[in-house]
Amino acid sequence: MPAHLQRLWHHSRCLDLVLEALTSVDLPPDAVRAAPRGMPPRLHLRLAALRDWLMTPAADGMDTAAIARHAGISRAHLQRHFPAVADGQSLGQFVRAQRLLRARHGLEQGQLSVAKAAQLAGYRSSTHFAAVFFQHFGLRPSQAKPVLPGRV
Predict the structure, then answer these.
(1) How far apart are CA 106 and CA 95, in angstroms?
(2) Which of 49, 102, 111, 148 is at 20 to 30 A from 74, Cα to Cα?
């Protein structure tokens, strides 16, 4: 990232952290109750927001270290606590599942070829993508593509 953009990113992260600090001074009771036992409510809220952000394409191409920097916590802390907000899935499993879901959606909408869907999901090999896709969804990527009128 160019230096001027990196400075902007750091400023925006600082503002995010200040906003988070100001809004979490008086946490709502439901946020406190939602946090798993032993996890600070602020961390739970931060991880839940990160989980929601990871469900968008914004994190595509980011590795674990970059995601941890975005969240403002260490990689080890992120990997240890993330499963609490992701139904027990590790960060890697969750990110992979989200990318596969976006690839499947693109295939079902007819917007992507299998090769493009593999690329979107982060796979260099269409064959490997097809095997992972089948393992995850129980169907081949070509079966997720819409049937065009006049084709059987």
Answers:
(1) 17
(2) 102
